[in-house]
Structure formats: structure tokens, C-alpha cells
Write a structure and sequence with these properties.
rod-shaped, 61% helix, single chain
């Protein structure tokens, strides 16, 4: 004669059955990368109107390997401007606005 499974065994099997469903839901959410939201090209006017938080995101994109161009500057010059802007944004903004 067979015996009914114990409560402990039933709870164990139910728990095991639920694990794949919880793993599927955990993988559905992917956090957005702020560097992906940055444009690849800025005019001088657009770049100088960015906030410090936006400059941080542009610098983050540069550090992650993205190529970003500013106005008529080459990619290497644009990268240097962006990295300088992360250090001292007010001074870099004033320099760009003055045509330097």
C-alpha cells in the first residue's frame, strides 16, 4: 500500500516548481545604461548648454568606448574637451563660448 507524501515533501516540490518562474521574472528587468542615452554628435551650442549631470553621462560614454563629436572638432579633440569638461565644466564652457 502506498502512503501519501508528507507535508514537508509537498512543500519542497512546490518550492522547486516555483524556482524557474521566479528566475524568469528576475531576468526581465534590465537597468538602462545612462551612456546609451547620449547623442553621438553635439554642436558647440548644444554642448555648452548641457548640465553637469549630462556632461558626466557624456564622459561616461567616452570612457566606455563611444565616439562622440563636438562641432567641427576631430574625435580625439572632442574626447579631450569632454574629459576636460568633467574636471572643470564652467571653465571649459567659457573657453568654448569664447571660441577657444
Amino acid at each position: 500500500m502506498t502512503t501519501a507524501p508528507s507535508r514537508r515533501a509537498l512543500l519542497g516540490w512546490i518550492g522547486l516548481a516555483c524556482l524557474p518562474a521566479t528566475a524568469l521574472h528576475a531576468n526581465d528587468y534590465e537597468e538602462e545604461d545612462p551612456a546609451d542615452l547620449v547623442s553621438d554628435r553635439f554642436s558647440i551650442r548644444q554642448f555648452t548648454s548641457l548640465s553637469e549631470n549630462e556632461i558626466y553621462k557624456v564622459g561616461l560614454a567616452i570612457k566606455r568606448g563611444r565616439t562622440i563629436r563636438i562641432g567641427d572638432y576631430s574625435p580625439s579633440e572632442s574626447k579631450a574637451i569632454i574629459l576636460r569638461a568633467r574636471e572643470n565644466w564652467p571653465a571649459t564652457r567659457a573657453e568654448l563660448l569664447s571660441g577657444g
